[in-house]
Amino acid sequence: MLLNKVVRNFASSSAKVPQFVPITSNTGIAGAVGNTPLIKLVKLSEELGRNIYGKAEFQNPGGSIKDRAALYLIKDAEDRGLLKTGGTVVESTAGNTGIGLAHICRSRGYNLVIYIPNTQAQSKINTLKLLGAEVFPVPPKPYDDPENFNHKARRHAESLENAVWANQFDNLANRNAHIETTGPEIWNQLNGKVDAFTCSTGTGGTFAGVTRYLKDVSKGKTKSIVADPPGSCVFSYVTSGGKSLERSGGSFTEGIGQGRITDNLKQDIDTVDGAVFIPDGETIAMLYRLLDEEGLYLGGTGALNVVAAAKIAKDLPENSNIVTILADSGHKYSDRIFSKKWLQEKGLLEHIPENLHKYIVYP
Ligand SMILES: Cc1ncc(COP(=O)(O)O)c(C=O)c1O
């Protein structure tokens, strides 16, 4: 009955025809990557008198921003003739690129081998396995150690026929994904009024690619500021004018933080307008606040990016538009970031206001 009524009402009024129709993908899951909504963080924007927008990358088929890079890395290998039917993709990843690759590999009939630091959330490892990947969790090692996960992945690919090491850190196909998709989407979604962009970096593909596109299309007017967690060298690199790679401590965020300037980041790092350092206490507080006030259930990097956007907003004129990346959702990390014991162990509990402790649902 109710359904009939709705249908009749809809049919009788041309004004009810939706103006926007989400895309139809005729190329399977690959065509469903990207074209994500841009969400205004209404309460935060009201408080700041500046508009903070988050790109809802958790809405990608594999659940993160890294689906975009995964698709471009595979297309790049295919275009260069390195990957043929039945071939194998090998990659070193904190997890999300691996998950993106796993979806695309399944849909195109490729095998997938993943090297992942054994410090990452178990749920990412489980997801990779259930998507058919062969997974090698390995101890984290510095880049110049031959046992670093990148070198292990490269050697693995070299030992196989019809196999490619995707090399997301230094393969510029990653950055191209954001020059060709994320950047233009943001620009169009705000009709060209993008005053500032910020996000943190893992491979640097997102930050570098979006920065390159926005700087070009705005003729240098859009400001781009890189955000960095503890344990990463990017803040120190930018603020020292490229002289220092100093870093100390560590972060609970996963998928971001670097000990070097990757080839993807190197392309555009000299065009940035600055860097902000975001301590974990501010990130976890924002993660809980966004859940409570905006209804957004984010992973740590998305929350960190919003902290950075809010800091940058304070130095910009009223009504400026500041865009950042909501890289993934909280699902993969929930047994950590919503566990009282884990928060206590990491020294993060004290940063969460008492009235938000109701969200700490695990012991
Ligand atoms: C949750 C999350 N946020 C941010 C990033 C960083 O993105 P990029 O590698 O493009 O710098 C990653 C990378 O894996 C990630 O997994």
Automatic annotation (TrEMBL):
Its EC number is 2.5.1.47. Residues 30-328 form the Tryptophan synthase beta chain-like PALP domain. It catalyses: O-succinyl-L-serine + hydrogen sulfide = L-cysteine + succinate; O-acetyl-L-serine + hydrogen sulfide = L-cysteine + acetate. Its main location: mitochondrion. Keywords: Amino-acid biosynthesis, Cysteine biosynthesis, Mitochondrion, Pyridoxal phosphate, Transferase, Transit peptide. InterPro entries: Cys_Synth/Cystath_Beta-Synth, P-phosphate_BS, Ser/Thr_deHydtase_PyrdxlP-BS, TrpB-like_PALP, TrpB-like_PALP_sf. GO terms for cellular component: mitochondrion. Its cofactor is pyridoxal 5'-phosphate. It comes from the Eukaryota. Pfam families: PALP. It is found in: Mitochondrion. The keyword Transferase applies. Pathway: Amino-acid biosynthesis; L-cysteine biosynthesis; L-cysteine from L-serine: step 2/2. One of its GO terms (biological process) is cysteine biosynthetic process from serine. GO terms for molecular function: cysteine synthase activity; pyridoxal phosphate binding. PROSITE patterns: CYS_SYNTHASE, DEHYDRATASE_SER_THR. NCBIfam families: PRK10717.1. Catalyzes the conversion of O-succinyl-L-serine into cysteine, the last step in the cysteine biosynthesis pathway. Can also use O-acetyl-L-serine. Belongs to the cysteine synthase/cystathionine beta-synthase family. This is Cysteine synthase 1. It comes from Wickerhamomyces mucosus.
